Amino acid sequence: MNPPGVAHSKVEVHHGRCISCAGCVGVCPVDTITLRELSLTIEQDPCISCGLCIQMCPVGALTPGPAYGSAPTAKANRVLVVS
Ligand code: SF4
Ligand code: SF4
Protein backbone atom coordinates (compact mmCIF):
# COMPACT_ATOMS: atom_id res chain seq x y z
CA MET A 1 0.00 0.00 0.00
CA ASN A 2 1.33 3.41 -0.87
CA PRO A 3 1.12 6.09 1.82
CA PRO A 4 -1.40 8.88 1.31
CA GLY A 5 -0.39 11.48 -1.21
CA VAL A 6 0.21 9.64 -4.46
CA ALA A 7 1.52 12.91 -5.93
CA HIS A 8 4.60 12.41 -3.77
CA SER A 9 5.13 8.77 -4.64
CA LYS A 10 8.33 7.79 -6.40
CA VAL A 11 7.31 4.22 -7.10
CA GLU A 12 3.68 3.21 -7.36
CA VAL A 13 2.49 -0.28 -6.47
CA HIS A 14 -0.27 -1.86 -8.54
CA HIS A 15 -1.46 -4.36 -6.00
CA GLY A 16 -3.75 -6.17 -8.40
CA ARG A 17 -0.75 -7.32 -10.42
CA CYS A 18 1.65 -8.13 -7.57
CA ILE A 19 2.29 -11.85 -7.07
CA SER A 20 4.28 -11.30 -3.85
CA CYS A 21 7.47 -12.83 -5.25
CA ALA A 22 9.58 -10.49 -3.06
CA GLY A 23 12.04 -9.83 -5.87
CA CYS A 24 11.77 -6.08 -5.44
CA VAL A 25 12.37 -6.36 -1.70
CA GLY A 26 15.70 -8.05 -2.29
CA VAL A 27 17.09 -5.52 -4.75
CA CYS A 28 16.21 -2.25 -3.03
CA PRO A 29 19.52 -0.68 -1.93
CA VAL A 30 17.89 1.36 0.83
CA ASP A 31 15.59 -1.34 2.23
CA THR A 32 12.49 0.75 1.81
CA ILE A 33 10.25 -2.04 0.49
CA THR A 34 8.53 -4.46 2.84
CA LEU A 35 6.35 -7.46 2.11
CA ARG A 36 4.22 -8.48 5.05
CA GLU A 37 1.32 -10.91 4.90
CA LEU A 38 1.49 -10.75 1.10
CA SER A 39 0.98 -6.98 1.13
CA LEU A 40 3.71 -4.82 -0.38
CA THR A 41 4.57 -1.42 1.07
CA ILE A 42 7.10 1.10 -0.18
CA GLU A 43 8.16 3.80 2.23
CA GLN A 44 8.61 6.59 -0.26
CA ASP A 45 10.83 9.08 1.57
CA PRO A 46 14.06 7.03 1.56
CA CYS A 47 13.63 5.93 -2.08
CA ILE A 48 16.53 7.03 -4.28
CA SER A 49 14.69 6.31 -7.54
CA CYS A 50 17.27 3.78 -8.69
CA GLY A 51 14.63 1.87 -10.62
CA LEU A 52 15.91 -1.56 -9.62
CA CYS A 53 12.59 -2.69 -8.21
CA ILE A 54 10.77 -1.58 -11.34
CA GLN A 55 13.18 -3.55 -13.51
CA MET A 56 13.01 -6.58 -11.24
CA CYS A 57 9.25 -6.91 -11.11
CA PRO A 58 8.19 -9.75 -13.44
CA VAL A 59 4.59 -8.61 -13.75
CA GLY A 60 4.87 -4.84 -14.14
CA ALA A 61 3.39 -4.13 -10.73
CA LEU A 62 5.76 -1.24 -10.04
CA THR A 63 5.86 1.94 -12.08
CA PRO A 64 7.49 5.35 -11.62
CA GLY A 65 5.32 7.81 -9.74
CA PRO A 66 5.07 11.59 -10.11
CA ALA A 67 7.92 12.16 -7.67
CA TYR A 68 10.27 9.62 -9.28
CA GLY A 69 13.72 11.21 -9.53
CA SER A 70 13.26 13.56 -6.60
CA ALA A 71 15.77 13.43 -3.79
CA PRO A 72 15.33 11.11 -0.82
CA THR A 73 13.96 12.92 2.19
CA ALA A 74 14.99 10.45 4.86
CA LYS A 75 18.32 8.90 5.65
CA ALA A 76 18.98 5.70 3.74
CA ASN A 77 19.36 2.52 5.76
CA ARG A 78 22.09 1.17 3.57
CA VAL A 79 24.33 2.53 0.84
CA LEU A 80 24.96 0.60 -2.36
CA VAL A 81 28.65 0.68 -3.26
CA VAL A 82 29.59 -0.25 -6.81
CA SER A 83 33.27 -0.80 -7.49
S1 SF4 B 1 13.42 2.76 -6.98
FE1 SF4 B 1 15.24 1.86 -5.97
S2 SF4 B 1 15.35 2.88 -3.95
FE2 SF4 B 1 13.28 3.23 -4.76
S3 SF4 B 1 12.06 1.59 -3.87
FE3 SF4 B 1 12.77 0.89 -5.91
S4 SF4 B 1 14.67 -0.26 -5.49
FE4 SF4 B 1 14.21 0.97 -3.66
S1 SF4 C 1 8.74 -7.78 -7.73
FE1 SF4 C 1 6.65 -7.20 -8.42
S2 SF4 C 1 5.46 -9.08 -8.11
FE2 SF4 C 1 7.33 -9.33 -6.91
S3 SF4 C 1 6.76 -8.58 -4.82
FE3 SF4 C 1 7.65 -6.84 -5.97
S4 SF4 C 1 5.88 -5.76 -6.86
FE4 SF4 C 1 5.18 -7.82 -6.28
By CATH, the architecture is named 2-Layer Sandwich
Number of distinct helices:
2
Helix content: 10-25%
Sheet with most strands: 2 strands, antiparallel
Give the class from helix and strand content and strand pairing.
alpha+beta
General description of the model:
Strands 1-4 form a two-stranded antiparallel ribbon. A hairpin with a 2-residue loop joins β2 (33-36) and β3. The chain has a single domain (6-64), classed as Alpha-Beta Plaits (2-Layer Sandwich), CATH 3.30.70.20. The model has no long low-confidence stretch (mean pLDDT 88). It has 83 residues and is α+β, with helices and mostly antiparallel strands. The protein is built from two helices and four strands, in the order βαββαβ. Bound molecules: iron/sulfur cluster (SF4) (2 copies).
Brief rundown of the structure:
The protein is of the alpha+beta class.
Write the layout of secondary structure elements.
Elements: E1 11-13, H1 23-27, E2 33-36, E3 39-42, H2 52-56, E4 62-64
Antiparallel strand pairs: 1-4, 2-3
The protein binds iron/sulfur cluster (SF4) (2 copies).
Which key terms come to mind for this protein?
binds iron/sulfur cluster; globular; 2 helices; two-stranded antiparallel ribbon; alpha+beta; 12% helix; Alpha-Beta Plaits; two-stranded antiparallel sheet; 83 residues; 4 strands
